[in-house]
Write a structure and sequence with these properties.
This protein has about 325 residues and is an alpha/beta fold. About 40% of the residues lie in helices and about 25% in strands.
């Protein structure tokens, strides 16, 4: 692709309607300075200077899609609490449609509070539950999601699973079945509990840890032979179309049943890996739908993951920055305008 074709494809992000279903989180950051150790216990005293709330989990996937230009609808369940209010307000302010976010009186809004000093995280506090949805919560949520899919027919549906209890097996199966009927591309960022529940999805994107835990294999050493064996085992379980396995500093493995390979990692100074998987699944689903080129999708996803790892905290990838980095990777002789 030449420079003009790349820009045209990036512009087409704005034509897509993406639906994200999964566990949302509120990422709260407390920034401060550490000058001394507490006299009460051998712990640092943080002089708090700034607080900031950001969208995390499935909400960060949605934010990445919006940042790339897509229309995005987010479906999840949050607590009937102040953290839920903050999360919904942040999502709406970012341009994410929140009509499919349901409130629960049984569970808190998942909130992760990170205390940071001098760009280093020194403590994290998690307020959450991983209990599955009650029947009382599940039925209205699933009804709203299926009705929305039937009426709006989004181009892509992304499952973002953090094992917090939203994505029950029944919910997963019903949504995938509906998407297969309508031809909607489905992509999954899985976790351990429901790893084998995503039968028939288009794109399955685990990382090395999730592959090892989900398939109960060592996957050592990590090379084409062992990854190909893991892919075959995945396919026999899930009957999906595309495997995209993130390999950390080793890059990304891809396989669509016909072609496969490993794309080397996009080299960056790593500041924080938080949220990188959210960025990768968003970019993967959108770019593959537009191009149907799996190797190229893996290249762009790798670049996107590297870009967000260069920043502290959970942040979305910026469309222009990603476009420039991709053009430079494909056409290093051409500088960005």
């Amino acid at each position: 692709m030449d420079r003009k074709e790349i820009k045209t494809l990036f512009d087409k992000f704005s034509d897509l309607h993406v639906m994200v279903v999964g566990d949302v989180m509120l990422d709260s950051y407390w920034w401060g300075d550490v000058e001394r150790i507490s006299p009460e216990a051998p712990v640092p005293i943080v002089a708090l200077q700034q607080r900031e709330n950001r969208l995390g989990g499935a909400a960060n996937v949605a934010l990445n899609c919006v940042s790339l230009g897509a229309k995005v609808t987010l479906a999840s369940v949050v607590g009937d609490d102040e953290q839920g209010n903050i999360l919904c307000e942040l999502a709406e302010k970012a341009g994410i449609e929140t009509s499919l976010i349901c409130r629960s009186k049984y569970r808190p809004t998942t909130t992760k509070t990170r205390i940071i000093s001098r760009n280093q995280q020194i403590l994290r506090l998690d307020d959450e539950t991983d209990q599955v949805l009650t029947i009382e919560e599940e039925h209205p949520f699933l009804d709203k999601v299926l009705r929305f899919l039937q009426i709006e027919k989004p181009d892509i549906l992304i499952f973002e699973d953090y094992d917090k209890g939203l994505l029950k097996e029944n919910i997963i199966h019903r949504i995938i079945a509906h998407c297969r009927e309508t031809g909607t591309l489905t992509a999954v960022d899985p976790k351990k509990r429901n790893f084998s529940s995503y039968h028939g999805v288009t794109i399955f994107k685990p990382n090395l840890k999730e592959i090892r835990e989900g398939l109960h294999i060592s996957l050592d050493p990590v090379n084409m032979d062992t990854l190909h064996t893991a892919d075959q085992q995945l396919r026999s379980t899930l009957n999906h179309q595309i495997s995209l396995i993130t390999l950390s500093e080793k890059g990304i493995y891809f396989n669509d049943g016909n072609s496969s390979g490993i794309v080397p990692a996009y080299v960056r100074d790593i500041a924080d890996v938080s949220g990188a998987g959210d960025t990768v699944i968003a970019v993967t689903a959108m770019w593959y739908l537009l191009t149907k080129n799996l190797r190229d999708t893996a290249i762009l996803a790798n670049i996107a993951g590297g870009l967000v790892c260069g920043q502290v905290g959970v942040v979305p990838v910026k469309r222009q920055e990603l476009q420039d980095a991709y053009i430079n990777a494909r056409h290093p002789e051409q500088s960005s305008e």
